[in-house]
Amino acid sequence: MRKIKLVFLPFLALILFSSCIAERAYTENEILMDTVNAITVYSKEEYENIVPAAFDLIREKSNLVDRYSSSSEIFIVNENASSFPVEVSSDVFNLISFALDMSYETDGVFNIAIGPLVDLWKIGTDEARLPGPEEIEEALLLCDYKSIVLDEVNHTVSFLKKGMSIDLGAVAKGWIANEVVSLMKEMGCEKAIVNLGGNVYVIGEKEEGKSWTVGLQNPDLEFGGSYATVDVSDSSVVTSGAYERFFTAEDGTRYHHILDPRTGYPSSSDIQSVSIISADSALADALSTTCFILGVDAAAEICERWGVSAVLLTLDNDIIRL
Ligand code: AMP
Ligand code: MG
């Protein structure tokens, strides 16, 4: 089990401006997935009935995909899939299929098989370190998403190389947000804010005919300070930023947690933070990571191709809306 440094991303990554009308909000917070998760609803009944069910679902889903927990399906896949095909639940199979598709669609910039490289850098833990070039080269050989074989009929996963591992860190929160929002809506919720460590999903409208205003965290400010806002209804806003998890090496260089599979090092594009807006939070999550790595020009093409909106904060502090 790795030791993770807890970071309070919901308040680091995104904030929500509260409604100006006097309406009672009920918020529950819980630390899961190494971060603070918050759900806000607007009736006591929903707070008592829907919110606990929503947190149960977050717990259940996150336990399935946490590759550091020995009881998770992903842990079992990573331990065994190079020896024999490992059967997973249809839920997890669909998520792996989606993440593998996104890996092919982005030519491996979003890389579901990034596990060995993430384990080498250990960014976000107390053991984070700058690896040597040979170690990076070795790990990169194992970050080979094309060596993942999925069997659609039997729902199994196999690896063609020993030492490979799946990491769903760039897409899991978005996937869980989709599932939680579906459940809450099925249970009758028409207005809520689901914030999974900065991965925000707003249900419905703030008031009739009025969108929610979501603030995008300014990387240079303490949490809560935003550089821009977006107005959204019934949609997800997912942010990837270099400020979220990083470590500072002895020479003062900062290394963040989003790795470029083309180099093996933390990515170095012209973007310091990107927020993707989409009703599909898993897609927004995968695309936020991809756009962050690829930079402004590619982000414009990606947003057009997948029909999503985005707000980019460049290294020069320009704000670009796509
Ligand atoms: P996000 O904050 O959604 O951009 O996801 C970052 C997390 O995804 C990291 O902490 C890693 O676990 C994982 N990750 C890092 N680089 C990549 C990559 N190139 N493709 C897929 N997942 C990645
Ligand atoms: Mg992501």
UniProtKB/TrEMBL annotation:
Co-factor: note = Magnesium. Can also use manganese.
Named cofactor requirement(s): Mg(2+); Mn(2+)
Question: Catalyses which reaction?
Answer: L-threonyl-[protein] + FAD = FMN-L-threonyl-[protein] + AMP + H(+)
Principal location: membrane
Q: Where is it localised?
A: Cell inner membrane
Topology versus the membrane, per the UniProt entry? Answer: Lipid-anchor
UniProt KW Cell inner membrane keyword:
yes
Q: Which Gene3D superfamilies match?
A: ApbE-like domains
Coiled coil (residue ranges)? none
Sorted keywords for this record are:
Cell inner membrane, Cell membrane, FAD, Flavoprotein, Lipoprotein, Magnesium, Membrane, Metal-binding, Signal, Transferase
SUPFAM superfamilies in UniProt: ApbE-like
PROSITE patterns in UniProt? PROKAR_LIPOPROTEIN
GO cellular component terms attached to this protein's record? plasma membrane
Q: What does this protein do?
A: Flavin transferase that catalyzes the transfer of the FMN moiety of FAD and its covalent binding to the hydroxyl group of a threonine residue in a target flavoprotein.
The protein in question is named FAD:protein FMN transferase
Q: Which organism is it from?
A: Candidatus Ornithospirochaeta avicola
